[in-house]
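Problem 3 from the worked examples.
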Amino acid sequence: AATTAALLAVLAGGLGWIRLVGDMTVDPAAPNAPAAAGDLVELIKGNSYDNQWLTEWPYFSIPSVLSTGLLAHRATTAGLPILVGAMLLLVAGLPTAAARRRGWRDRPLLIGLAGVLGALLAPFHFFYFPAFWLLALLYVVGGGRLTDARTPRNALAMLAPLVLAAPFALTPVLQASGSGALKAVLGWESAPLADGPAAVAFFYVTNLGVPFLLAVAALLVPRTPWRLFLGAWVAALFAIPNLLQFSVIAFDMNKYFQAMWIAVALLAAWLIRRWPWPAVGLVLLLSVPSPLLVAGWTAWNREQLMDWNGAAAAEWIADNTPGDAVFATDGWLNSPTDAAGRLRLLTYTPYVANLGYDPDERARQVHDMYCAGDVGLTVRLMRQLGADYLLDAGRPADCTTPTSFGEGGDLVQVYANPGVRIYRLQGSAAEP
């Protein structure tokens, strides 16, 4: 059961692969035929069949753990193991009331370590931080440990580490509340709500696939171990995106479905633990193609990666600039400054907005630096915002009048390769 659960948790997903089957059978000459229709390799290289935006029905908008978590999303790559580890420590350290009656004892050290990991989720993962504390509460309540003689001691061990999370959690919560990013919703925006309940049900069944259906079936079996807690885990994290939104981009609430997937994998694996191997193989055959197809797409796709020029620039930045240097960049998702561990004036604006801050003014300033055609304005803005360097590896969208940074004398080119140029601001704190 454990081996099957691990396979399902990491490698399984929904039924997005059926889109590939459809694309393989479409006549390439037909109207609206997808690019490379009928060409298996080109279709895999050009399409993310686990998570495709802006497509016609059937819709697949819930990324699997493998596709967006372990291959592409750094926060989830760290955050999901932290979430799982914290829950394991809590379960090992705080036995249920029934287990205590059988002789199990509390282990405050493990409870405290669970609290530490739960608190450290705040800087690692915007969505999993509250998810852990909700799951911890469900476990404590469901295990009958909310109110007993040891509750004060255990609560102190568990909650004291939250002081570590305060600098990362309080400001975003207050900012999001004031900005309107935190709101109640009736249904997740990425689901086809306008098409009616049947379409929404079809969407979730096909997006979550066979493991989800098996998990629901396991919850109907009275002897399923930890049925109430795992059922609460699935129900709570499924409900959150359908009832609340605290992300500027509603699609990003899909991270809760990935956190839900851990419980789904456990329930499904238990249900099929004694099935014949051919039947288990069929479950895997229906469940793993979509994440594996995304693995193939990720291997060929370059939109999510820095190229070799960016990697070389990152190495130079790390070796030749002060650790507290601040860079002006184009504000795209990835930048050589990130790999080098340096600050930049603007990152991907939806990430800024998710923390409750309005990125529009800073985005306008950065756009003016790169696209106003006035290097004097670029220099004034860099001094105003405290930037030491400017990285020219690409321009923001709608850059009609690109600025020539080599004009004047205030910006000195200190590094160049075929794809990246770096300028230092004369008179900045970083000037040697």
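Problem 4, a separate protein:
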Amino acid sequence: MSTPFPLPWEMPIAQHELVDGSEILDETVRILRRYLVLPRHAAGTIALWVMFAHAIDAFDVAPLLVFSSEQKRCGKTRTLSLVRELVPDPISTSNISAAAIFRVLGDDERMPTLLIDEGDTFVRGNEALRGILNAGHTRSAARVLRAAPRGTGVEEYSTWCPKVLALIGSLPSTIQDRAIDIPMRRRAPSEAVERVRLDRVPDELAPLKARARHWVEIYLPWLSVLDRPVPEDLNDRAQDNWRPLITIADICGGTWPELARQAAQALSGNDIDDGDDIAVVLLKDTWDVFERTRASRLETERLLHQLGKLENRHWTSFENGEPLDALRMSRLLRPYGVRSHAIRFRDRVKRGYRRSDVHAALAKWAPDAVQPPLHPKLRCNSYTSGRAQAVGESA
């Protein structure tokens, strides 16, 4: 095994040959695919994150691993049951309070991995819990202060540990920004996988878990000092989230450096940056919907529905877990000259938006996001078989 770059100092050959990180990652992927139907890049991402959980002491950022789906029975709990047997000192729960988190994690003698299922039932709207999950993203901020019993002072608790969260729907944007989100889907009848035998899985995965722990023990000095390049098209927070996984992939070598960067771009490449104006992001996404539908105008309800279907966007959990609605969209777009109008759609008049308005706004505020407009002699006819077609006008 060799890394794609020179390590800062040499390693004794005998120790180097004890364990091969790329083989551990490959074996983890094979096991995950035996039991799960996962989207592209998911198995590799989970394998890298599991290795990160063992190596968290080497890093200053701890990305939350999220399994999300739009409906139930998409394999989230099954995935958690496998991840549980691969990570160090797992603690599993289907409901937890803010106080319980910092008391469980505040033991300096322990570094557990927290696995939270059914997150949709209690995370949204729980500001205290969200604050603690957010604080646990970086080592320097992963501390909470609470009054000691009977007014004896203040106690400090750590929230620093690897965390996994599974839920239906989307996360609040502040948590999503600190997460690597794997979108899960329901398995099709034709997609066969092995049944997970919970009584046998621990014994089956124990050797692989031990090998991962051993690899980390050997390479921890390198993990602590290396700063490997990450894809530049990721926003700053996404780069922070992926840097530990990419560092692990680079040291493991083989095909993993390339696979890790492909996964980062696929899963986090479209995330919204904190520095982006949310209204401009909405403008760009609205334009994307007009481009995909090839419509000259869209009903507000249909536009919101299409926005909610965009990958790696959070319009379905825009504010405090609530989806973007017509009023919020109008308030965001109005300062940029994009307003809803009463427009006739087929046999009725409804509120909607015009493609030309969105194009004009982007041409002024984000010109790189739009293509040149259609020729004046081409118009967009959105009433033919439900699809927009460019129709040439006769001269």
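Solution to problem 4. The two ends are 69 Å apart (CA to CA). The longest strand covers residues 348-354.
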